[in-house]
Design brief:
This protein has helices at about 5-35, 40-85, 85-90, 95, 100-120, 130, 135-160, 165-175. The chain is an all-alpha fold and about 180 residues long. Helix 1 runs antiparallel to helix 2 and helix 2 runs antiparallel to helix 5 (about 100-120).
């Protein structure tokens, strides 16, 4: 296995693991923490939310950072690989599959998701409106995360197919 393949694999693992941690934390907060704390008096609930916020904030920042760095690196490496071997991928593969448009949509939805995830664990007055209705904004953030995962699956399917080689390679293999 060459160095590029190892780096690509490590970046993919980092990306997936950060997404799992972030999405799992959102699921737990929305369907575990918020309903459980709804049964507790307001001052105690606020103290628990603050304790959770302090501990979860570094994880959210870390996950967002890893997702941005690994996602951009994965995109640039993949884009370079496609451009370096047009005979394998087909000269217009990315344009024909709307790959860049999907990446753009995924990136924009992810940025909105990161905003709400940050606001949920933040402490600034400007995002207090998000924390005032945690259940609602956790649900919105989870829905945005689901959209990102669905677009990611769609993008992955474009260049791998259902257990198949890329488009140009599949045509070459059938000859």
């Amino acid at each position: 296995m060459d160095t590029t393949a190892v780096v690509t694999l490590l970046l993919r693992w980092a990306h997936v693991l950060a997404a799992i941690a972030a999405f799992g934390g959102l699921l737990f907060a929305r369907f575990g923490v918020v309903p459980a704390l709804a049964e507790i008096d307001a001052p105690t609930r606020d103290r628990i939310h603050e304790a959770i916020r302090r501990r979860w904030l570094p994880w959210v920042i870390g996950a967002i950072t890893v997702l941005l760095v690994s996602g951009l690196a994965n995109f640039l490496i993949f884009n370079a690989r496609v451009k370096a071997d047009p005979a394998f991928w087909g000269a217009t593969w990315m344009r024909d599959t709307s790959y860049h448009a999907l990446f753009g949509a995924k990136f924009l939805v992810a940025m909105v998701m990161f905003y709400f995830a940050s606001a949920l664990v933040g402490r600034g007055a400007g995002t207090q409106w998000v924390r005032n209705d945690r259940a609602k904004w956790l649900t919105v953030t989870l829905a945005l995360g689901l959209v990102v995962v669905l677009i990611s699956g769609w993008m992955r399917q474009l260049h791998t197919g259902p257990n198949a080689a890329p488009l140009a390679a599949a045509a070459t293999m059938s000859n």
